[in-house]
Amino acid sequence: DIQMTQSPSAMSASVGDRVSITCRASQGISNHLAWFQQRPGKVPKRLIYASSSLQSGVPSRFSGSGSGTEFTLTISSLQPEDFATYYCLQHDSYPLTFGQGTKVEIK
Amino acid sequence: EVQLLESGGGLVQPGGSLRLTCAASGFNCNNYDMSWVRQAPGKGLEWVSTINRGVNGGTTSYGDSVWGRVTTFRDSSKNTVSLQMNDLRAEDTAVYYCARDRGFDIWGQGTMVTVSS
């Protein structure tokens, strides 16, 4: 099974900060990685697919990068509505696996 | 509008069974991989199962924590995907979401399953 190690598990940041979240895969997954945002009590929403492609309708301050085993989600300028939990997902092979999540809180 | 709507959740006793259904609208779910994902209270997301695309039902894959206790299947005439869950345990308590395609581009609103005596 492919393990996805996401870091950090939580972080405090201020509006306007640049924020980066990392996911490391235990083996290569090409670019078969997606990023999701989940606000409290809400349904997860896909932000990024194929490692770096921006989902339609998602603000351009979100970006993804990486290939193989290391991936990064970056928020260039954190906005109030971005305080949420973020998850990565590898869909290269079964069992599909999520990272443990990163909770982004207000500093 | 492309939508997924889950139903069938509820309270069930340990050892009991439940069938969840995901109704697709705005697209033909036979043309997509369709998955179930769950989220226990206060916890992260966990993949449960996937049925691959295919008119004849498609192949299925299951997570280790549910393997042997759940079955995913399609009803092409109703444009639905279902998750039959048997021998339910307290640790199966979660919100269950269905999601479209291998990369989970569309999610339903979720249905809550509570396993408790």
Question: What's the structural blueprint in terms of helices and strands?
Answer:
The complex is a heterodimer of chains A (107) and B (117).
Chain A: E1 4-7, E2 10-13, E3 19-25, E4 33-38, E5 45-49, E6 53-54, E7 62-67, E8 70-75, E9 85-90, E10 97-98, E11 102-106
Chain B: E1 3-7, E2 10-12, E3 18-25, E4 34-39, E5 45-51, E6 60-62, E7 70-75, E8 80-85, E9 94-100, E10 111-115
Parallel strand pairs in B: 2-10
Antiparallel strand pairs in B: 1-3, 3-8, 4-5, 4-9, 5-6, 7-8, 9-10
Textual characterization of the structure:
The complex is a heterodimer of chains A (107) and B (117). Chain A is an all-beta fold. Helix content of chain A is 0%, strand content 50%. Chain A is built from no helices and eleven strands. Chain A has strands at residues 4-7, 10-13, 19-25, 33-38, 45-49, 53-54, 62-67, 70-75, 85-90, 97-98, 102-106. In chain A, the strands form two sheets. In chain A, strands 2, 4, 5, 6, 9, 10 and 11 form a seven-stranded mixed sheet that branches. In chain A, strands 1-3-8-7 form a four-stranded antiparallel sheet, with no helix packed on it. In chain A, a hairpin with a 2-residue loop joins β7 and β8. Chain A starts with a strand and ends with a strand. Chain B is built from no helices and ten strands. The termini of chain B are far apart. The mean pLDDT of chain B is 95. The chains are: A mainly beta (107), B mainly beta (117). The interface between A and B is medium-sized, with 23 and 20 residues.
Main sheet attributes: strand count, strand direction, barrel closure of chain A: 7 strands, mixed
Number of strands of chain A: 11
Can you tell me the residue ranges of chain A where pLDDT is under 50 for at least 5 consecutive residues? none
Termini gap of chain B: 39 Å
